[in-house]
Model the fold of this input.
Amino acid sequence: MSNLHLRESRMSLKSKGLLSIMLSLPDEWEYSIAGLASLSKDGKDSVMSALDELCEFGYIKMTSIRNDKGQFETIYDIYEEPILENQ
Done:
């Protein structure tokens, strides 16, 4: 895992920690707000705010899709180095 995100002084410790955890999980891990919240004592709201910040900084991209059952699912693209949309 790159430590670039750990040196980002404008990002919260909560977001740095969540990204570190997400990067350490196996590739086949199924990401969800509830699943991520279960990995610490932080609740769903805290996880969602950290994910928002990680999106803002370009470390995560979340895409909502509709599955075969018509339910919405979120696809998480996680990056060790920030990817900004306008690059």
About this structure: The chain has a mean pLDDT of 92.
